[in-house]
Amino acid sequence: MKNLRRDFLKKSVLAAGSLLTIPTIIPGSALGKNGFVAPSDRINLGFIGAGNQAGNDVKDFLADKRVQVTAVCDVNKKSSGYWNGKVAGRDYIMQVVDEHYSEKNKSSYQSAIGYTDFRELLENKDIDAVEVVTPDHWHSIPVMMAAAAGKHIYCQKPLSLTVEEGRAMSDAVKKYGVTFQTGSQQRSSYHFRRVCELAKNGRLGDLHTVTCGLPGGTPDFGRTGHLTETIPVPKDFDYDMWLGPAPEAPFSPCRTHVNFRWNLDYSGGNVTDWGGHHPDIAQWGMGTELTGPVKIQNAQAVWSDHPVWNTATRFYFECIYENGIKLIIQSDKDMGVTFQGTEGSAWATRGDHKINPESLKDTVIGPDETQLYVSDNHFENFIDCIYSGEETVAPAEVGHRSITLAHLGNIAMMLEQDLLWDPKKEQFKDNFAANQLLIRKMREPWASIYRSLKV
Q: What is the reported pLDDT for 60?
């Protein structure tokens, strides 16, 4: 296991980009006493991104005694505009981290270094792992750079902005051999695992149709949807760095923070935002998680008429697989994942699942049948695998193949065409226009940096 033994003083006295005075009395937890993991055995974790999702995820990692959160990077110091208008940003997440360790150690304790440029964070050799929890257009370059630096990576879903970037990310992770977890946390749920095992083991008969119901619309999560006018960039927000590889665009509050997902320059709307969840489960249950469909058909969409947001508000498309199974991905109907076979059906959503007929409810998957990867905590599974060297429940290639479905659907809806797909070559057949949409042009210098990182 790489770089897990350290002089604990290097970890515990860093804060806000500078060294603090070493405390006169070092708490027992810092020495690995009283049931705590010794600092030399902890995993130093850095956050690349400090928005609303980071605010959720940091608490899960802080709860793991094997982890020490030591770095937080974001181009925004601190502001509102995140989930339900709440505050987030670099200083906010650093405060959450330091307050947690202060309470844990029963004294003032500063753990997190603050960064505005993720490249400086990745140069810190004391950091063992990172979570990339940025807008989608900022996933590929930090992931590929982290992999090259030997950092283990938890990357939030949706894995990539484009099919081509997802391929590049998966290839980099494979080359450098780092542990990788895609934040498709439904794979760490009993309900989804149960219905997938029933589907894979033939309990539903011959599988013929799978339906994924996703939310539609463009909900104003940040309460900034009405703020469409161009205004000066706020102080302590590096907007040019926030745009990064995306096209230049005037600043307006509705464009950034949590509402970034409603603009195609940065994300793919609910098609990709939820496409990293239910379609991922569909692929798991169908046994197609390392391949993909051969055709996308009957694509239909209603697109946002907002001045800045331009993603699909309603959508429908079908993915046809080589074995004849049809996967339907649609908005605002049949929320969850439903597997339909010749002898029954199984449905799952977060916190619940149902099986029809009822007689299948108590069926047991035997030791000689297909038993799926068991994970009950997505964050702990990532840390477990860093220690063990085993593959996570949602590795990079699986995350890439799953979100590819959403990208293909968006492309088919944009072109209003049925499309033939080659899942081995990851190219459309005989369709130049569709293949041009598998990647998006990046701004310099990020385009050159991206090319240099490809393996």
A: 97
Q: What is the largest CA-CA distance in the chain?
A: 70
- The Cα 30–Cα 26 span in angstroms is 7
Place of tokens 């150690």: 105
From start to end of 215-341, where are the E strands?
295-303, 312-320, 326-331, 336-341
- The stretches of 126-234 forming alpha helices (DSSP H) are 140-148, 163-176, 190-200
CB 330 within 8 A of CB 295: no
- In single-letter form, the type of residue at position 314 comes to R
- For 276-396, strand residue ranges (E) read 295-303, 312-320, 326-331, 336-341, 345-349, 352-356
pLDDT band at 22 (very low <50, low <70, confident <90, very high): very low
Q: Which two tokens stand for residue 414?
A: 């944009």
Structure token digits, residue 245:
């590889």
Q: Looking up tokens 């439904």, which residue turns up?
A: 186
> What mean pLDDT do residues 388-408 have?
98
pLDDT tens, position by position, 78-107 = 999 999 989 999 999 999 999 999 999 899
- Conformation bin of residue 81: beta by default, left when phi > 0, alpha when psi is -120 to 50: left
Continuous segment of H or E residues that includes residue 113:
strand 113-115
Contact 168, 140 (CB under 8 A): yes
The helix (H) or strand (E) run that includes residue 271 is helix 270-273
Q: Please tell me the distance from the alpha carbon of residue 173 to that of residue 171, in angstroms, as a whole number.
A: 6
Q: Mean pLDDT lowest for which of 34-48, 96-110, 176-190, 308-322? A: 34-48
Report the SS3 class of residue 129: strand
Residue 43 belongs to what H/E stretch? strand 43-48
